[in-house]
Design a protein that fits this description.
Spore Coat Polysaccharide Biosynthesis Protein SpsA, Chain A, 8-stranded mixed β-sheet, about 15% strand, binds uridine-5'-diphosphate, single chain, binds magnesium ion, alpha/beta
């Protein structure tokens, strides 16, 4: 490392973490743009690339980048463990006083990092990237994202800033707090606001991917993400069963009274036929199945936690010692 006379604050290190899943075409460019930005700030830095079970040449490229520049560190998983776990592994490895999460596909421009660092120096512990605009994404993705954050906000009471993604800066003490949260079903966008401290945001324009394709497009991929977000931070779905129970019991009580009165007032007359009974039974059956399903969802999560399996398994590590 070069010997220069640096002000005292420059002893602090900046860590940039990018999760990588089949991102072979973008990794060189990612390294170039991130290093250019950090170099221009004159801060000691490191770039951590977590290969989340890529099936392309991503791991080889990380290996190559590490050989060329030891400030590129990282590891590769034994298989695909998912975005949330990849980021968590990066946090475990990070040494910086400020840690920045960024998507490998360069949708989050590294050029925003100096703004984030400036806010951090002002004393903020979390600096969100707020998407002022989003390019190259379908109306479906934008629409569902918008609805999703509004629903989460209402149900969980965790105040997730609107229009933020995972692009953000975190102070060391926030990172330490996250590392103490051992849950297996992780939802970082909720965990970071939960930690608290001083949080703020900087606006940026979300670009289109420079290459490769999005891994989160279908309902099949986004559905579990949404369920995770809600169940990790709220009991509300469990309470729905209770509310519905009270509502239906109340209505039924009124209906019973009505039936008795009608029966007494129509001498010898038959009340309406089987259909009413059938509909009522089917409706209640449906409500009970849904309620059971919700309980099952939480039970499954408790099971996941109780097993205490490791969050991820490492296949290869690119670090100083190796
Ligand atoms: N990613 C990952 N593991 C996965 C899926 C995605 O590490 O199982 C990474 C991916 O390489 C990228 C980031 O997560 O760096 C965001 O993924 P993507 O760009 O596909 O999502 P989008 O921007 O479309 O929401
Ligand atoms: Mg992307």
């Amino acid at each position: 490392m070069e010997e220069t006379t640096l002000p005292a604050t420059d002893k602090l290190t900046v860590t940039v973490i990018a999760p990588v899943h089949n991102e072979e075409p973008v990794l060189h460019l990612l390294y170039e743009r991130v290093s250019a930005v950090l170099e221009s700030m004159g801060e000691p830095w490191e770039l951590i690339l977590v290969d989340d079970g890529s099936r392309d040449k991503s791991a080889e490229i990380i290996n190559e980048l590490h050989a060329r520049d030891p400030r590129v560190r990282g590891l590769s998983f034994s298989r695909n463990f998912g975005f949330q776990v990849a980021v968590s592994a990066g946090l475990d490895m990070a040494r910086g006083d400020a840690v920045i999460l960024i998507d490998a596909d360069l949708q989050d421009p590294p050029e925003v990092i100096p703004d984030m660092i400036a806010k951090w120096r002002e004393g903020y512990d979390v600096v969100y990237g707020i998407r002022a605009t989003r390019e190259g994404e379908t109306w479906f993705k934008k629409g569902t994202a918008k609805a999703f954050y509004r629903i989460i906000d209402r149900i969980t009471g965790i105040d997730i800033p609107l229009d933020t993604g995972d692009f953000r800066l975190m102070d060391r003490r926030v990172v330490e707090a996250i590392k103490r949260m051992p849950e297996r079903n992780r939802f970082l966008r909720g965990m970071v606001p939960w930690v608290g401290y001083r949080q703020t945001g900087v606006q940026y324009h979300r670009a289109a991917r420079v290459a490769g394709s999005s891994k989160f497009t279908s309902v099949r991929q986004m559905g579990p993400f949404a369920v995770n977000a809600i169940t990790s931070f709220s009991y509300f779905p469990l309470q729905i069963a209770t509310y519905l129970g009270f509502l239906i019991a109340g209505i039924s009580l009124l209906a019973i009274i009505a039936v008795i009165i009608l029966r007494l007032m129509t001498p010898g007359g038959q009340l309406l036929g089987q259909a009413t009974t059938l509909v009522a039974v089917l409706f209640l059956g449906g409500v009970q199945l849904i309620s059971l399903g919700i309980i099952g969802e939480y039970l499954g999560r408790i099971y996941d936690e109780v097993k205490q399996r490791p969050l991820y398994l490492v296949q290869q590590k690119w670090d100083d010692e190796t």
